[in-house]
Amino acid sequence: MLAPQVEIILVAALAGAACALPGAFLLLRRMVLIGDAISHSVLPGIVAAFLIIRDLRSPFLLLGAAGAGVLTVGWVDALLRSGRLKEDAAIGLVFPAMFSLGVVRIARGAGSIHLDLDAVLLGELAFAPFDRLTWGGWDLGPRGIWVMGTLLVLHILFILAFYKELQLTAFDPDLAHVFGLRPAWLHYAWMALTSLTVVAAFDVAGVVLVVAMLVAPPATAYLLTDRLDRMLLGSVGLGVAMAMGGYGFANALDVSIAGAMATAGGLLFALAWIGGPRHGWIARRRQATQRRWRLAQQLLAVHLLSHEGTPAEAEECALAHLPEHLRWKPGFTAAVIRRAEEAGWVIREGERLRLTEAGRQAAREALMEGEWVFLLR
After folding, report:
1. Which residue(s) pair with 355 in the sheet?
2. Cα 225 from chain centroid?
3. Other C-beta atoms within 10 Å of 15: how many?
4. Which residue of 11, 109, 124, 137 is most buried, as measured by CB atoms within 10 A?
5. Is pLDDT at 34 greater than 90 in this prediction?
6. pLDDT tens per residue across span 274-305
7. How far is Cα 126 from Cα 360, in angstroms, rounded to an integer?
8. 155-193 exposure pattern, b = at least 16 Cβ within 10 A, e = fewer
9. Whether 210 contacts 144, CB under 8 Å
10. What distance in Å separates the CA atoms of residue 116 and residue 113, rounded to the nearest whole number?
11. How far is CA 213 from the centre of its chain?
12. How does the average pLDDT of the chain come out, rounded?
């Protein structure tokens, strides 16, 4: 039997990994907030299942909630296909309507029963070790481990079986339809599994943490790679890291486990946003700086080429007059000339600057691309 702390971390890690995989595809389809919409819209499904089963502990309540989640996705898709609404507006219209329908059904059919979202879906990780799964007198461990582990395996198997189809429908559903892949069928099958996963994770970890697990790991992985397979693997790893790091924060600071894990996810995203190798803030600033220097070098090369062999060459290419003609500050002009010399584009001949063959080629390419024009505006 594992220690309670290890069981909590294991449940959270499995929940994070299981939520990260569907979250990656939701992110690519710009529907990542559908997880939050499901958290509000599952109430009618819970009520419908309860009115049939009459048992607040029945797993059929979760199935009813998952069914309502699929209905929510279908409704949102129908609104999007109209072409008149964006994702945020469609989601904002659907989940209040679904939640209101659940409230009305409670008032009409289960008014004397304490049945609401708190009764079924607002889980707490600290209580996960106490919800045990037993079989034949054997204690098999926390129920959350088995539930989230099973759903994680189902997600992995689904991705392995339909990876190419999921990849194509995520980036270009219209092309997938042309190829006869039936993207609508695949999308609803995937969303049914996603809804079941999200609802089960609500029961284990709570709504706020599950929404964070859906968004933070795939969004962080999205900043770290441009390949889908690496994004999926990274999302799973980051979901596990989010759970483990968050539990460490919670234990050290004596704060809410779910809140600490959500904070850990935010910190991981912030680190990727700042220090990502290609899309991080530092990398983007460095790329912008390099591009600015290169464009300045190209403008210098174009200026020298345009006056090469003309009567005005002696004045236009003179080192002392370049800042005036290019409308640059002297210090910036000197820095551009130094970089152009290091690149082998220009050489000094006394007080004059002359292009090399490499510099002429660079100037011609710049004229063809037209990039240098932006510096003249």
Report:
1. 346
2. 11
3. 36
4. 11
5. no
6. 998 888 899 999 999 999 999 999 999 998 99
7. 69
8. beebbeebeebbbbbbeebeebeeeebebeebbeebbbb
9. no
10. 9
11. 11
12. 83
**DSSP characters over 253-281:** HT--HHHHHHHHHHHHHHHHHHH-TTTSH
3-state secondary structure of 111: coil
Mapping DSSP to helix (H, G, I), strand (E, B) and coil, where does residue 123 land? coil
Tell me which residue of 210, 209, 232 sits closest to 220, measured CA to CA.
232
Q: Which pair of structure tokens corresponds to residue 240?
A: 């596990």
Q: Strand pairing of 346-349 and 352-355? A: antiparallel
The answer to whether the Cα torsion of 284, 285, 286, 288 is positive or negative is positive
**Measured distance CA(298)–CA(375) in Å, rounded:** 10
Cα 259 from chain centroid (whole Å): 20
Q: Are 121 and 203 in contact (CB under 8 A)?
A: yes
| Percent helix / strand / coil, the chain, rounded to 5 | 75, 5, 20
The stretch 104-119 carries a mean pLDDT of 59
The amino acid that residue 307 corresponds to is H
Neighbours of 238 (CB within 10 A): 27
Q: Is 346 left (phi over 0), alpha (psi -120 to 50) or beta?
A: beta
Neighbouring C-beta atoms of residue 270, cutoff 10 Å? 12
Q: Is 352 helix (H, G, I), strand (E, B) or coil?
A: strand
2 Cβ neighbours under 8 A, 6+ residues apart: 10, 141
Please give the C-alpha separations between residue 220 and each of 84, 213, 237, in angstroms, as whole numbers. Answer: 31, 11, 11
Q: Which of 120, 119, 128, 118 is nearest to 204 (CA)?
A: 128
To which residue do tokens 């009764």 refer?
119
Question: How many angstroms separate the CA atoms of 247 and 253, rounded?
Answer: 10
**What's the rounded Cα separation, in Å, for the pair 125 and 261?**
11
Amino acid letter, residue 114: H
Q: Which amino acid is at 83?
A: G
pTM over 0.85: no
